[in-house]
Amino acid sequence: MEKILQSYIDLREKSKNYGDDLVAIKPNIENVFAMIFNNATVVLEVLDNYDRYWKRKYVGIPQQKIDELKEQNAERVMEITKWSFTHALSSLEYSAKKIIKNISQIEFQDLKNKLQRGKWVYLSGIMEISKTSGLITKEDYDRWEGITYLRNCLVHNNGIADKDKTFTIRTVNIKCENGKMIQGKLDIFYNLTDVSVDLYNDWLHKI
What is the largest distance, in Å, between two alpha-carbon atoms of the chain? Predict the structure, then answer.
């Protein structure tokens, strides 16, 4: 638990630094990193309260019961950090669409027109245009593809993969099997959030 807590402390600090840089360089762009900062703060507060409660609860309990409680606790951590990941992706997507609405680059004109007509535009589509226009590398696009696919599975398909595919997203290796629940280590959703924030910060500085 201490490692997870420290990870979100680091994410919160990173978000603050990215936000400060964004405001200084591009003050007309809404600071999405403030949303990520608040997101990480909520996770820290919830997990810290759980950590204190669990430590008290374990005192005087047989080891078998402790093991059962730890497994249940791990499931709660996964749920909280999964919320953090999907919420962060929604914030980044919202921010990207607001930027596209006011952008001048010709490559994004079709997406801009769609937004102005009230049509749906997705983060995956924005990053695809960013790849074809040379704003991001194929490697970064592949990371975005994996991140958005996993987010969509979690939000729209209860975490069940609908195809066989393996994603390597920085330090995260995820093997998806059609019809099966996506599996990962306790820090999977933190790592996905952290990568997403880094990738989005890079994109902002190139747009």
Answer: 66
Which domain does 156 fall in, by range?
A: 2-206
Q: What is the pTM of this model?
A: 0.90
Neighbouring residues of 74: CB distance < 8 A, sequence distance ≥ 6: 186
How many domains, the chain?
1
Helix orientation angle between 109-116 and 63-101, rounded to the nearest 10 degrees: 100
CB 207 within 8 A of CB 103: yes
Geometric angle at alpha carbon 60, from 73 and 4, rounded to 5°: 30
Alpha-carbon gap, residue 33 to 199, rounded angstroms: 12
Q: Are 129 and 106 in contact (CB under 8 A)?
A: no
Can you tell me the distance from the alpha carbon of 175 to that of 153, in angstroms, rounded to the nearest whole number? 13
Q: What is the pLDDT along the chain (207 residues), one digit of tens a residue?
A: 788 999 999 999 999 999 999 999 999 898 999 999 999 999 999 998 877 777 766 667 787 877 777 777 888 888 999 999 999 999 999 999 999 998 888 899 999 999 999 999 999 999 999 999 999 999 999 999 999 999 999 998 888 988 888 888 888 888 888 998 888 888 999 999 999 999 999 999 998
Tokens of 78: 């996964």
DSSP state, 161? -
| Packed helices 123-132 and 188-206: angle between N→C axes, nearest 10 degrees | 50
